[in-house]
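Standup notes
- HV: blocked on the assembly model, inputs below
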Amino acid sequence: MAKKDKSSNKDRPSSGTSMTLGIDLGGTKILAGVVDEHGHILGTAKRKTRPERGVDAVIERIASTALDAVADAGLTMDLIDAVGIGAPGVADYNTGVIEFAPNLANWVNVPLGPRLQSLLETPTFVENDVNAGTFGSVTAGVAKGYRSVVGIAPGTGIGGGLVLDGVLWRGARNAAAEFGHMVVLIDGPVCGCGRRGCIEALASRTAIERDIVGELRGGRRSLAADYVDSEGRVTSGALAELLKEKDALVTEVVSRAARHLGIFTASLVNAIDPECVVFGGGLIEACGSFMMPIIRQATYHYLIRPVEPENLPILEAILGDNSVLVGAAMLANASLKAG
Amino acid sequence: MAKKDKSSNKDRPSSGTSMTLGIDLGGTKILAGVVDEHGHILGTAKRKTRPERGVDAVIERIASTALDAVADAGLTMDLIDAVGIGAPGVADYNTGVIEFAPNLANWVNVPLGPRLQSLLETPTFVENDVNAGTFGSVTAGVAKGYRSVVGIAPGTGIGGGLVLDGVLWRGARNAAAEFGHMVVLIDGPVCGCGRRGCIEALASRTAIERDIVGELRGGRRSLAADYVDSEGRVTSGALAELLKEKDALVTEVVSRAARHLGIFTASLVNAIDPECVVFGGGLIEACGSFMMPIIRQATYHYLIRPVEPENLPILEAILGDNSVLVGAAMLANASLKAG
């Protein structure tokens, strides 16, 4: 992507600190933050995404949120070296195009990077959100100091991110780390992708929801009945509540999903042998205290080369809401340097 | 590993061509070959392994085979820059120790590298055999020119190798690419590792054998009955014969294994996004013409990001018997250069 030359900038602080703007574009909200080169957040802003209003409106909302974050940091846009944006779905890092994003009212081939770059007059780098979040964990989060990290983010779907030797691994076609569509139960339940037995069809919030609603329809009694909305949806927050209430059905279904996530995690570790694994995503943010012990137990049991847990930590992301924006900012910074 | 200084060698050909010795240590035979830096074989030798005679005897047989290969090339050992050896099982590249090799009469913690280095007075590098074979395919075989390659080797078990950006990926603990123990059918058939549902328990020669013998015992009629030995074993060669005879049972069982291998391959591609996939191993060497079309069809169907087959070739290793020795030699050469 063409880069704007900012080397002549005379207002630049003499410290020489590089500052980038990170944006987390989600299906419901946009988060933006100014991030220094150590991953510290200097200012933030937030807006609803409102994808139903169309591509142009969303891109304008992103730009406004970005400018708000810069103002919140007490800065001006000309002090920002680069913009990084993490988006849900398939992002082409090289062109800045969002090829496909079902969570953004089905964006197809949207040139998000070039359009934001033109609006903000600053080099802009686009990345898949879980890739960005994993890189955020490695550079400024719970996995700081680890060089090779598998990131797994169970939520509505199951996203993935892969950092190898300190570098985000994008694969040969920017298609790496699609962990959600690795098959763990051949000919198992149907997945949103149309195939069967993907881990996403077994352990995402959507899969848990399907299993709970199925049991309720079959006549099983559970407090969950009060939490299912008219479209058969159960939020991650509701699942956390129901686990706290020790509802038998929800405990059973979520435990099974967590065990499946653990077996799946072991498979990934058997293939890649990372230094650590980081879990993020809405389901883990809400239900991590219940799910993580089960995930860890199944993972260690299914490793072909046994390892002491301290030599393969399975961590919960701590950046929480900010992991994607921090990671997107750090990636933009790294891209600028590699530039 | 300490390296012998050969820089003072006066007999060295003036061409400056680097020559390494590659060794394929298998459960039944030892292959050795002198390999130039382009991966061409200049001379070879072969012996039976006879692991039942014990560690010392096997190491002596390896050294003798190595010297025979050097003589076959019309050379002497002092012209060999390094030795690379591919061994079945868990090899620690850094120490040269074979941690565990069930196919070598259960070797445990055998310092193969240091002992060969001392016998041959030449820097020696030890590697897992499928790692070596995959590197051989990338540097001098069917995958030459590709930078990121997934290698899958179904035979008695299912081995794996992973080359990323032109470098063998060994992982954080030299434990990467244990593809055989990735779970594709949670709670499925028991695996040799003691867990359930690993791809090795579904699509190795051993799994195929188990399914065929099970059906025969259940009364199913098949030509396979004539090929099962007293211990219930069916060789890959026998399977190839039975496929040629269009035996219904064998066709059914091998087809299913091939489909499972394809679904599994797609999962690996969804995670790693390599430039190509290379299949080797005894089962594919014998039955590849039947299995590869089924493997390819299932793989392309299960990719989350569809790709034209020419943009993700799924290849059959062509080095055959020599892939491990060539790869081991090329790895030794690369290790020597990396210092």
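- HV (later): unblocked. The domain at 19-136+322-338 of chain B is CATH 3.30.420.40 (Nucleotidyltransferase; domain 5). Confidence is low (pLDDT under 50) at residues 1-14 of chain B.
- Next: hand off to the docking folks.
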